[in-house]
Amino acid sequence: MRVFVDCDPGIDDALALAYLTARPNVEIVGIGAVFGNNSVDVTTDNALRLMELYGRSGVPVARGASRPLVQPPHLAELVHGANGLGDVETPAPASAPVEESAAELLVRLARSAPGEIDVLAVGPLTNLAVALSLEPELPKLVRRVVVMGGAVRAPGNVTPWAEANTSNDPEAAEVVFAAGFDLTLVALDITMKTVATGAWLDELKTVEGERAQTTSAFLDFYVGWYSNVFGVRQCAMHDPLAAAILLDPEIVTTSVDVPIRVELKGEHTRGLTIADMRPDAASHADDRPKITLVQEVDGEAFLKRMMDALR
Ligand code: BDR
Ligand code: CA
């Protein structure tokens, strides 16, 4: 399996990369970094650091968008730390980013292997939107896209309505959702219910090795934020759940194929993801491509595989 990862690491982005890199049969063909949890300079540097930590130092990492298509950027240092990785020190990367931008790298890789590359997008969708402007046929060139983003029935996490990745670049998300990719959306609806519990976090602390221990240190910071959100010591597994759904689609137990749009104008609802969930949706004319919205997963199977990936 060949995967291009677009991300804004970010502590849960790091977990997604840990999940992918634990599988010898998964080739990460490239990583695009994007602003989001931190500036694009920091997220690019973190992607390089994480590839070294997780034993894939040869993977090309490309710097992507430094800001959304329209609005100013909004970063998340309170959730992910001033350095994007929970203020945990990791060795400075030995390698540098490639010369191409993230969008250019994705387009070149997709053209060179039509129908073979899957995309995991776990940051704002700006790089994918730019890639579509460079290559409108991209939805036919990549095999499948799994996106972490949006909140369909759940509350948002940046505003009462909007999730961070869609809220950070609503115009880009709207372009990507309309483009006709074979796209699976892993929204807050399911990621906020798929949590690493205190017991899971304690078990991780007993796993020996740099891979597990450094990731556990990242999580110490992240769980500090999420403990306030949930009122108990646990954290949401947003991005690694999307990685697992890409690699192990059988963990999805319920999903629905629906048109999904992004609100671009609302005074209070900008960035909101709107899915047509009417029971008779199919009888309403709508030429919008359908997106597979994940509704239920086998959370225990996922958490076990996540732990195995860190061993
Ligand atoms: C998403 O926003 C980011 O902060 C996380 O890395 C994740 O991709 C969750 O809303
Ligand atoms: Ca992310």
Descriptive notes:
The chain is built from 13 helices and eleven strands. It has helices spanning 11-21, 40-53, 77-80, 102-112, 126-134, 138-141, 164-167, 170-178, 188-191, 198-205, 210-230, 238-247, 299-310; strands at 2-7, 27-33, 61-63, 117-121, 142-148, 183-186, 195-196, 235-236, 252-262, 273-275, 290-297. The strands form two sheets. It has a nine-stranded mixed sheet, sandwiched between helices. The longest helix has 21 residues, at 210-230. Bound molecules: beta-D-ribofuranose (BDR) and calcium ion (CA). Residues 10, 12-13, 37, 76, 79, 122-123, 148, 157, 163-165, 238-239 line the site of beta-D-ribofuranose (BDR).
| CA-atom Rg in angstroms | 18 Å
The SSE order reads EHEHEHHEHHEHHEHEHHEHEEEH
Number of E strands: 11
Structural class: alpha/beta
Please give the structural blueprint.
Layout: E1 2-7, H1 11-21, E2 27-33, H2 40-53, E3 61-63, H3 77-80, H4 102-112, E4 117-121, H5 126-134, H6 138-141, E5 142-148, H7 164-167, H8 170-178, E6 183-186, H9 188-191, E7 195-196, H10 198-205, H11 210-230, E8 235-236, H12 238-247, E9 252-262, E10 273-275, E11 290-297, H13 299-310
Parallel strand pairs: 1-2, 1-4, 2-3, 4-5, 5-6, 6-11
Antiparallel strand pairs: 7-8, 9-10, 9-11
Calcium ion binds at residues 7-8, 10, 12-13, 36-37, 122-123, 239.
Domain Inosine/uridine-preferring nucleoside hydrolase: 3-303
Pfam family, one: IU_nuc_hydro
Protein name: Nucleoside hydrolase
